Amino acid sequence: MSGTSTPELRQPQSQKVTSRIAQLAPSQPFYTFEVFPPKTDAGLANLVDRVDRMSALDPTWMHVTWGAGGSTQERSLELSGAIQGMGLETCLHLTCTNLEEGVLERTLQRAKDLGVVNLLALRGDPPRGEEYWTASSDEFQHAIDLVRYIRKEYGNEFCIGVAGYPEGHADSADKLADIEHLYEKQEAGADFVVTQLFYDVEVFKKWYKACRDRGITIPILPGIMPIQNYLSFRRMTNLCGTHIPEDILSDLERIQHDDAAVKDYGVQLAVKMMRALFEHGIRGYHLCTLNLEKSVTRVLELLEWVAPGATRTRSAVQKALAANGAPLPKVVNSLRPAPAASPSVAGADIARKDSPASWDEFPNGRFGDARSPAYGEMDGYGVSLKLPPGEAIRLWGEPTTLADISRVFSSYLRGSIQSNPWSEEPLRAETAAISSRLLEMNDERHWWTVGSQPAVDGAPSADAVHGFGPKGGYVYQKAFVEFFLTADELDELERRSVADERARIDAGEGDDGLVKWFAGNMRGEFRSNLGKGDVNAVTWGVFGGKEIVTTTLIEEMSFRAWCEEAFALWKEWSLLYAAASPARGFIRSIAESRWLVSVVHHDYKDQDGLWRWLLSLKTSTTEQA
Ligand code: FAD
Fold first, then answer.
1. pTM of this prediction?
2. Pocket of ligand 1 contains residue 109 by CB under 6 Å
3. Using an 8 Å Cβ cutoff, are 459 and 465 in contact?
4. CA geometry: angle at 203 spanning 200 and 204, to 5°?
5. Atom of ligand 1 at shortest distance to CA of 66?
6. What CATH number was assigned to the domain covering residues 17-327?
7. What digits encode the pLDDT tens for the residues 108-119?
8. Nearest 5 degrees, angle CA 194-CA 198-CA 200?
9. Per residue in 74-89, pLDDT tens?
10. Using CB atoms within 10 A of its CB, is residue 508 exposed (0-12), middle (13-18) or buried (19+)?
11. Residues 136, 106 contacting (CB under 8 angstroms)
């Protein structure tokens, strides 16, 4: 490049999405893609790259989700700015309840500065009022209050979407009242509606007609999510209370252990639903991508709405560069992955070279690959207890002693309660093999376990308990567990792991220890016995004709992201109880004094190795006993 000044790519004019719809031919199908802000910087960088490829599929606009209570505010804004900067119209989701003072005002101003003129105005979690220590004003009880606020403060500068619920909202016993409230949101200034996910087209059709009959005239886009993975699908639909028709449930149950078959089924089902809706006169669709591109690409190809191989044609960024010959706006470039970036895990790297779209198509579990844009929660709505406050207190009581907290964990492990603040779904079947060890940790040591897996030495990939990926392969796991412990106990764990490593080296049994761990606390302090950049690869699969697939890596980046979330959940738990209550104070003091540790035992052939090692540690609890 010549000259001294660096010309910036001219920002394309922002456009309201309703104007974009108006420019389309009336019979033309259109679609939007929803993405959520990834948890890690690497995930964010890879997502920006992925969105760029997805832009070749010509979405009419993009959606970026927002963490309830403003928990992802920075990342949501950064991501929206980057996507808008690529020339793709972006709609930023925004909730109005439980926000800290000033967040709303700052966000709207920043959205405007970034050229983001489309918003999805939502309520978020029910307002917690006094229970919440930094509750914003009572002004915001419902999404309509946010619509009114934006219209009052910004006139018509923003195009505002709102949420609709074909099956009725979970809080509402009355579907007609729901439609009435949607009508009121339109009257307050909403410009379009995006619906909650559903899998029963007939339910949608009836609701859609009822909305139109009531006088809701603004565009309504049905929310469609191609199923990516059986467990996460069940988890998400359970959380939202979505009705799944019997035939779909039984089809999925049959193939639930073959991830590739589930994905394919998800694509075929989305195509079938969208065809039926198209015949019914619906033109616009809201596609939830879960930050993955393969399924939505296949859906659009099968519908023949895009040409096969479209994502290999020129993307938004390439087109813009070709048109201007100028560099990208800084906000885009600062987020894209460096060309020479070299992930330290061979599996992910190889798979990535193979196909940029599919290197993380099986982002299994919480400790999936933190570089994957799809890593983290399923919906990107941020940290929350996923249970109504009353129900949470009924299940978990009002803890004021260590034993009270241990009881929550052991009840969960015994199956007498179905969730704890860190896990909103019942235990996985594989935990049965280690539950007696986990109970010892929780009951006897007050080591509260929030994640674990047993060692597995080559189970068939179709195995009902451990299997994943295409059938005909074999899967392996190293045992790991993550739990809360005191600083003294962490010191002891560290001393033992150092001593063991030295003993192994002295005995010529290896040049490293078998036990590796990461630990972090509420203050952001971090300790580990791994070298900088080292990772714990704990789950992998070997499949015919494919490179070894590593689905679960524990590394510093993913651990830090999860640690922050795990401590935020202590805070969420404490907020269930009144401000001056003993339970709130006790939970806070526990959170402040504990560390979260994630421990892996590398000998996957030794089924009891990790548990023997941990439970032989001498700590103050064992000394008292
Ligand atoms: P509201 O419109 O306030 O409706 C909630 C309930 O209150 C309904 O039962 C409604 O009938 C009732 N109601 C509405 N107005 C009134 C009124 N004036 N008086 C009495 N009752 C009323 N959450 C996030 O945290 N981040 C996201 O990015 C996000 N994206 C979403 C995207 C879509 C497409 C959808 C469908 C939901 C999304 N959500 C998101 C979840 C959403 O925040 C929750 O569903 C929330 O519980 C309700 O939000 P709402 O905007 O529909 O609220």
1. 0.76
2. no
3. yes
4. 90
5. 28
6. 3.20.20.220
7. 999 999 999 999
8. 130
9. 999 999 999 999 889 9
10. exposed
11. no
